[in-house]
Each structure stands twice: as C-alpha cells, then as structure tokens.
Amino acid sequence: MITIRKAIEADAKQIWQILKTTNSGGDSFPFLAEKDLEEKEMMNYWLANDKHTYVAIEDETILGSLYLKDNQPGRGSHIANAAYTVSEKSRGKGVGKLMGNFSLKEAKHLGYKAIQFNLVVKTNQAAVNLWKSIGFEIVGEIPEAFQHKEFGFVNAYILYQKL
User: What radius of gyration do the chain's Cα atoms show?
Assistant: First the structure.
C-alpha cells in the first residue's frame, strides 16, 4: 500500500535519484537546461525550510515526492505552489494522482485557499491531463515559457484550483 508522509533528511538520496531522472528528461522540470544540477544544490532546494515536502512510499521505497510552498510572499502567500516528481518505474500507476489529491487536502489543512501551478509545460500532456482530472483549470498560457530539450521553446500553462 502506498502512503504519503513528511520527507526527512534520510530520504534525500532516494528523492535525488528520482529528481535527477525527471530533470534529465528536459521536458517537464525547469531545474536543468544544458548543465547538470548538483545533488546538494537540488536537495537543498527541494527540502528547504520554505517548503512542506512529502514522499510517497511503498515497502520503504520512495515512489515520488512533492512539495507545497507559498506561491508568492506576503499578500500572495494564501495560494500554494507545488512541484511533483514520480520515479520512472512508478509512472502510469496512479502515484502522481495520489500525490495530487493528497496535496489538495494538505494545502487546505495548511491554511491555503488555492493551489496555482506557474509552469506546466503544454507538451507534457500526461501532466496536463492529470491536473485537469483532479479539478485544476487552465487559467493562462505563457508563450515560449519553457526550453524543452527536444522541441526548443514551448508554451506553458498556468493552472489553478480553489480549495
């Protein structure tokens, strides 16, 4: 059975392996362009104190990770932002949807009024379909917002869901 819990420092190695694979795809995460991001730098970012970071686990194996954070400081801090990554072996098995639904409940529990995704790559149809299936709406499209590894500059969506 898959469970979701708060990430701890000891999870960093497994999370890094998932993030490294996701980043290297060059089709969904903005963290990598042409240079390789260092493990310490990425884990400092993913596990930073300004985020609520979680892992989806099954039999002590991390299948995915997510974080929630303020989308903007101060007067914009009532809206959450989030990022998600799923291991290659776990893709297509509902882990992303499980984490997405968890994040909606958890964000509300943390006092957020909505979640906004600022950069959902338009060509990442699996992600777009997933977020729409759990109630997110496309509220904007940014021309050439993402440097896709294969397609060059592609558009990205802004997605939103009121909690």
Answer: 15
